[in-house]
Structures
1.
Amino acid sequence: QSVLTQPPSVSAAPGQKVTISCSGSSSNIGNNYVSWYQQLPGTAPKLLIYENNKRPSGIPDRFSGSKSGTSATLGITGLQTGDEADYYCGTWDSSLNWVFGGGTKLTVL
Amino acid sequence: QLQLQESGPGLVKPSETLSLTCTVSGGSISSSSYYWGWIRQPPGKGLEWIGSIYYSGSTYYNPSLKSRVTISVDTSKNQFSLKLSSVTAADTAVYYCAREQFPNWFDPWGQGTLVTVSS
């Protein structure tokens, strides 16, 4: 059981928008930055969002992040088939531990 | 462009020690801004942070693995290494190394290496 809770799966049609939630507590999300990672099939995770809502160079603005209280959300607009992947949220926890969500599988129908 | 590459045995026997090395290229492991971390992913499952190290040798570990983990750094070779002792089948996973900006993010990641624990 992961410390951060994500929905196991989400789906939407090409061109549509989807959001992925990540729920934690005051010991992690509530007091630390959240990062998001995209893991395409058979590849390593890739940083998508850092410090709650910032995009690394090269990440399109179709991807966005937000945080409110002890929850964070990843948003993806203009869905493409190439966005099909597993998405993970991660943050630091006061138990002196990095924690990740269980991952959300995005299907673009 | 910074790149990380994991290397080490793909098969380890139960009760033995898993040893992996991460080689950093395109940048210096001695950068004062970053830590260097190990994360693993059991087949079909999520990510689990193992531990991280600073170029000075300062480390911090996942409390659940701390008794079995040792991470070290060799700045002359631009490498850092992982040792996980007394392994069991539950330690079978893809092991990734990554640059870490503590405590904010991991980027980039190595391609990962599958380690199977089996006799």
2.
Amino acid sequence: KQEVTQIPAALSVPEGENLVLNCSFTDSAIYNLQWFRQDPGKGLTSLLLIQSSQREQTSGRLNASLDKSSGRSTLYIAASQPGDSATYLCAVRVAGGGADGLTFGKGTHLIIQP
Amino acid sequence: DGGITQSPKYLFRKEGQNVTLSCEQNLNHDAMYWYRQDPGQGLRLIYYSQIVNDFQKGDIAEGYSVSREKKESFPLTVTSAQKNPTAFYLCASSNDWYNEQFFGPGTRLTVL
């Protein structure tokens, strides 16, 4: 069964730093991988979707990479800001699984210190 | 505005009661999903529906039921058979099963 792990579980950095969040998955047969942001008590906001045939996706200060063969993805946040403070979740969709849902990691709780 | 709405935001249930959580989307998406989120755990799939009048059990369907009578709506009923229903419930939708999923704001259910 697919398992998704996110490291670190929590991270606190000063404003302005570039940072990397890690996501690993046990079964490389994925269809796509999606990164989300969740603010306390709120729903999930989709940040980036990477299809299995892609290596990376970029949106503003965010860049997500995917290495399907090694079962890894990273989310790079450039020039971090206090507003980036949130929990970041990684999720994969298993290939050939039909319409079933995503498999999620437990998230990285990120705090950007002003 | 296009999006997904969930109601109510907070819900309190007495033991032995059934309660229904609402999920509506105006994105014209075919697929809809229900997830449960517990502290310190990842989201877990309860039920999903690829098309109207069809739905499938996810990983933790016991004690839950759903219906999909309209494309826009996918209500979730938490029955008295669900042993530990206190959690944050999230509804999502996607244009098709392989596309980006979008989430609603969630409903927090507490059992009194």
